[in-house]
Amino acid sequence: MTIPGETRAGRSKLNGAYSTTAVTASAGEDLVGLPMPQRPDTLYDLSRRTRVRRESGPRFPFPIPNGWFVVATADEIEPGRTKSLFYFGKDLVLFRGTDGTPYLFDAYCPHLGANLGVGGKVVDGSLQCPFHGWRFDGASGACVEVPYDDNPYIPKTATARSYPVVERNHMIWAWHHLERAEPTYEVPEVAEFHDDDWLPIVVKDFEIATCCQEMTENNVDWPHFMYVHGTPAIPEEEFHTDGHYKRTVGMNGNFVREGFGLGLGVLRVKGYTTFLSSTTPIDEENVHVRWIFTSPKSLGENAAEKASRSFTAAVSQDLPIWENKIFKDPPVLRPAEKAITEQRRWCQQFYSWPAGTNAKKR
């Protein structure tokens, strides 16, 4: 997530180094930066984005990270229904048991490879394959029934890959781990989303041709706020890490950003907004971003929507940078940019390097 580019009406909330001078441009115009123009339409219409990179080969030297990621909003899927998805470089099927519990599988049946999301049937807390009727337990993925066979033995290999799933903060989250290890931390509960003094949530979602690490590195790249977003000064922030957790504090304590692994963040701007961010890997080079906002009801019924527009307008300034840059390793950094080195070191704990590769851990 990034510092918002506020409208004039909202600048009293974010003053000093965090205020920006908004520059707008239509997608058909030449793109001139310093600062980058705000083009909110490009968030939702990929055809309007500026993409000039044509070199082939991978842009990033690391695999899809391990962690908790949103795979759907809670209201996207009803009990007894399925939904086909593509995240983590895989075809997936999300379904709710008849009691409403969500489950997530790799899409392909271990029997003969049918896609369980195309005609699969929810039976209580299990999913039945449309090809031969094999039925798989939602929590474990184990086959619990082969309806046409009297042999009671079912091999352990007859198991669909299932992912740990939690429903929290009005979202459905899945734990991805390249080596299938169990979760090592929890999805935080955002109390404001369930507080009667706060507005109903506003959800903004969009896809970006980048990766989780690049987006989260933006948070500690403080000089870019002046040159990309047009802030009058480079903000001064405190940056701390502790295991999977990180915390950034600015604006004399009124701006607090917490990170929980790669791709999960909670930002609180005191008296203005709280929002939850999930950056879900689609594959190694593309992500699906969901930002979930709320604001105090005392600010008016449209406050959360206004906050969401400010933040999304600002991130539209980052799109041309992210989608056309490469990852430099090692980078050429100035002493004042040491937080980028600290951030990259912190990120390493969230990767599993595939067996048999010579990938260098960075």
From TrEMBL:
Residues 69-174 form the Rieske domain. GO terms for cellular component: cytoplasm. It comes from the Bacteria. Its cofactor is Fe cation. One of its GO terms (biological process) is lipid catabolic process. GO terms for molecular function: 2 iron, 2 sulfur cluster binding; metal ion binding; monooxygenase activity; oxidoreductase activity, acting on paired donors, with incorporation or reduction of molecular oxygen. Keywords: 2Fe-2S, Iron, Iron-sulfur, Lipid degradation, Lipid metabolism, Metal-binding, Oxidoreductase, Steroid metabolism. InterPro entries: Cholesterol_7-desaturase, KshA-like_C, Rieske_2Fe-2S, Rieske_2Fe-2S_sf. The keyword rRNA processing does not apply. Pfam families: KshA_C (PF19298), Rieske (PF00355). Homotrimer. The two-component system 3-ketosteroid-9-alpha-monooxygenase is composed of an oxygenase component KshA and a reductase component KshB. PANTHER family: 3-KETOSTEROID-9-ALPHA-MONOOXYGENASE, OXYGENASE COMPONENT (PTHR21266:SF60), IRON-SULFUR DOMAIN CONTAINING PROTEIN (PTHR21266). This is Rieske-type oxygenase.
